[in-house]
Amino acid sequence: MKKVHFIFALGLIISLFFINLYAQKTIPSIKVKNMNGGMVDTKTFNNNGKPYVISFWATWCHPCVQELNALSEVYAKWQKETGVKVIAISIDDARNSRRVPGYVKSRKWAFEVYVDENSDFHRAMNSNHPPHTYLVNGKGEIVWQHVGYAPGDENELYKEIKKLTK
Q1: Whole-angstrom Cα distance, residue 64 to residue 50?
Q2: Spatial contact of 36 and 23, defined as CB atoms under 8 Å apart
Q3: Shortest CA distance to 111 belongs to which of 59, 73, 64?
Q4: What is the residue-wise DSSP string for 77-89?
Q5: 6 or 70: whose pLDDT is higher?
Q6: Where are the alpha helices (DSSP H) in the chain?
Q7: Which of 2, 30, 136, 152 qualifies as a cystine partner to 121, CB 3.0-4.6 A?
């Protein structure tokens, strides 16, 4: 009897793995704040059929800021070559979120920035720790993701973007 239960449990685990592996992963519908304080539904994020990047970050997260600074340095070139768009989502809480617009402006980041004060979008994307970066194809499907940042990680992201724009 134990053998039957084990085989059943193993089959269930394998089935769930493959269902999760092949399930279409799209952006959930969550409200986030733009830099003017207006609310935007994340389901409306798009790049007119071209890929886009979603990067979760926070002002207190040094690797996050390093990643966004690195992306900022190559962003104009990447846009020209691939048409990619970067969307940065701050997970700073309500106490710190008021600092985000000035923080972004002082760094001269040219990409779209939103604030997810309650981390609703962050949780809905199954993201644990920032920085967490997602690549979304032109159909709105999440096709790649990466957690953490080390100098040079942006090169791996660029390779993945290029795959989508061939």
Answers
A1: 24
A2: no
A3: 73
A4: HHHHHH--EEEEE
A5: 70
A6: 2-22, 62-82, 100-107, 120-124, 153-164
A7: 30
pLDDT of residue 7: 58
Peptide bond into 131 cis (omega under 30): yes
Q: Nearest to residue 37, comparing CAs of 109, 103, 110, 117?
A: 117
Q: Which amino acid is at 151?
A: P
pTM listed for this prediction: 0.84
Instruction: Kindly state which CATH superfamily the domain 25-164 is placed in.
Output: Glutaredoxin (3.40.30.10)
pLDDT digits over 130-147, tens only?
999 999 999 999 999 999
- As a whole number of angstroms, the distance between CA 83 and CA 77 comes to 9
* pLDDT value for 132: 96
First-to-final CA distance of the chain:
54
Structural tokens at position 70 = 């690195």
**Domain limits, the chain:** 25-164
